[in-house]
Design goal:
By secondary structure, the chain is an all-alpha fold. It folds into two domains: 38 residues; 33 residues. The chain has four helices and no strands. The chain starts with 8 loop residues before the first helix and ends with a helix.
């Protein structure tokens, strides 16, 4: 259920500066800021660790390799 909140002009201007595009809603901006400030889940931490090990083992492709494979 949508609700109205009051913010100062200063906070509103700061929120405007955080917009990724001009029509992004303040709700989207606030959600993104909250998400960015939250700690990663245990699953995300595990997936990051797996990815790091794969990189160390050389199991990755560079952008250039992918461009050639995709013919860009």
């Amino acid at each position: 259920m949508p609700t109205t909140i009051q913010v100062s002009d200063t906070v509103k201007k700061k929120l405007e500066n955080f917009r990724l595009f001009s029509r992004e809603t303040y709700n989207d901006v606030i959600e993104r800021l909250i998400e960015d400030s939250m700690e990663l889940s245990e699953k995300s931490k595990e997936e990051i660790e797996v990815a790091r090990k794969e990189v160390k083992q050389g199991r990755f492709k560079t952008h250039e390799q992918l461009k050639k494979e995709m013919k860009f």
